[in-house]
Amino acid sequence: MRDKILSILKGIRPEFDFEGSDDFVEDGYLDSFDVIELISCIEKELGVVIDGLDILPDNFKNLDAIVTTIKRNGGTE
Questions:
Q1: Calpha distance 23→45 (Å, rounded)
Q2: Mean pLDDT by 10 residues, the chain (77 residues)
Q3: Is the pTM here over 0.85, yes or no?
């Protein structure tokens, strides 16, 4: 799942090294529009629906947080 998420992130913002960041939002890698695009891609490519209450910056700040959010919404490795 991590590789798929990383691929999606690089598709959205190819200029950034997401593996080297602990906080994509704070580091300026993702803005609110990017997070919405990320959610849309995750839902389409991984077949999960992210609950609106989970759309918070902390849930998309790094790969671990994104994986946890996806799993909480029914996604599997």
A1: 23
A2: 96 96 96 96 95 95 96 88
A3: yes
- Structural contact between residues 75 and 46, judged by C-beta atoms closer than 8 angstroms: yes
Lookup: tokens for 28 = 């300026």
> What is the token pair recorded at 6?
């990383």
The long-range contacts involving 63-66, CB below 8 angstroms and separated by at least 24 positions, are 63/2, 63/5, 63/6, 63/18, 63/19, 66/5, 66/38, 66/42
Mention every residue, 6+ apart, whose C-beta is less than 8 A from residue 38.
8, 9, 12, 30, 60, 66
Name the burial class of residue 8, with classes exposed (0-12), middle (13-18) and buried (19+) by CB atoms within 10 angstroms of its CB. buried
Site of tokens 């950034």: 16
